[in-house]
Amino acid sequence: MRVAVALADWSERWFPDAFVFALIALIIVFIAAFFAGAALRDLVQYFGLGFWSLIPFTMQMAIIILGGYVVATSPPIHRLICWLATVPRTPRGAVAFVAFFSMVTSLVSWGLSLIFSGLLVREVVKQVRGVDYRAIGAASYLGTGTVWALGISSSAALLMATPASIPAGLIKISGVIPLSQTIYTWQSLAMAAILMFASIMVAYLSAPASSAKTAEYFGVVEDAPTSKPEERRSPAEWLEHAPALSLVIGVIGLTYFGQVVAARGPLAALDLNTYNFLFLMIGLLLHWRPRSFTRAVHNAVPATAGVLIQFPFYGGIFGIMTMSPLSRDLAGFFVRISSHGTFPVLVAIYSGILGLFVPSGGSKWLIEAPYVLQAAKDLHVHLGWVVQIYNTAEALPNLVNPFWMLPLLGILKVRARDLVGYGMLYLTVNAGLVLFFMWLFARTFAYIPPPIPR
Q1: What is the C-alpha separation between 292 and 71, in angstroms, rounded?
Q2: CA nearest 312: which of 60, 54, 63?
Q3: pLDDT tens column, 241-275
Q4: Does residue 452 sit within a domain?
Q5: Which of 297, 415, 362, 329 shows the shortest CA–CA distance to 155?
Q6: In Å, what is the CA distance from 26 to each residue of 96, 140, 313, 348?
Q7: What is the pLDDT of residues 443-453, one digit of tens each?
Q8: Number of structural domains, the chain?
Q9: What number of other Cβ atoms are within 10 A of residue 368's Cβ?
């Protein structure tokens, strides 16, 4: 508890904005590619060519946030949140309770987890007095910093299971890697359970039993009572509140999703597009009225700002990494310093460090995958488990990188530096667990050569 409070006090003073990390990463990659032999003129061109290369993926990530927000703020889910908030009775129990639901919901959707957990915090602090707002705020972010990428919204796993989404240069290396070799292995499920148990214990033990820095300290007050239902004075306003419209479109959408599942199978059907489609259709039905749905979307848009402005810079990094000799040299470097046994640990460390500067599971995987998977092939390491090593390790820096906190911060009405101190404590504990179990579980896999693409 003393360590957590000290780290929280330090981060409030010294921690910078997420965009700073993206700019630092770009500079580091630019310099590294120059020393790898690329000409300055070429590097500038690679940066420009790559800048807009992630636009489709950027939209997919923004829609994940929108879909999560729409579902979490729907009337049925909001009532569920209010009921759940009455369960914990003590400050420490409240922090551990929020940590649990943050991680459970992140296995379904990291976007849903951010919004659901933030709203849960706002309701819990109304019920349980004396909760340290920094501790419970950091607990609400745990899903995105621990197990989200081991769940069904894993960007890297979904991308590698979707032939149309895999870049041509990458599919020649790995082929398609089905979800049965990544998030649905028993090793991946065991890793998720271990991280959840450890994180809940840290949440409980590090939370002050009583604290001066409650929600009131940060100026967070209870929401004003909801206003009475809007009056409907014109045919247009009646249409905006007509449940029939949402019902018809929602049923059509879910029917289409059922057709996709029937045609492809439940595992192959789940890619980024169908995943986002499903969440929007469910959100439309849960909100019931078109006006309620569009209001939720409007409120969610500010939470996507960080994604929209920072992903083009990650695209520039991707351009430099893939077009310069840097990607080839890094693959050779991993092969030279690794063995079949040490490769999982080295990939985990590297993925975690890179995640400090490129805090996106999907776009960072596109940067990292070409040389990591090539090195894994050369060393005969199971490619599906390499994806899961990446998934587990890349989530860790999210605990201290404020990029994905942005939607949550808007709900909690705090700054990233208010939460990062507790995130440092979670990072310290979980990093050791990840390195050990990634190495241990890797020894249980037999190498499967990827299919030769036609």
Answers
A1: 11
A2: 54
A3: 788 888 999 899 999 988 888 887 765 666 668 87
A4: no
A5: 362
A6: 37, 30, 7, 21
A7: 999 888 876 55
A8: 1
A9: 23
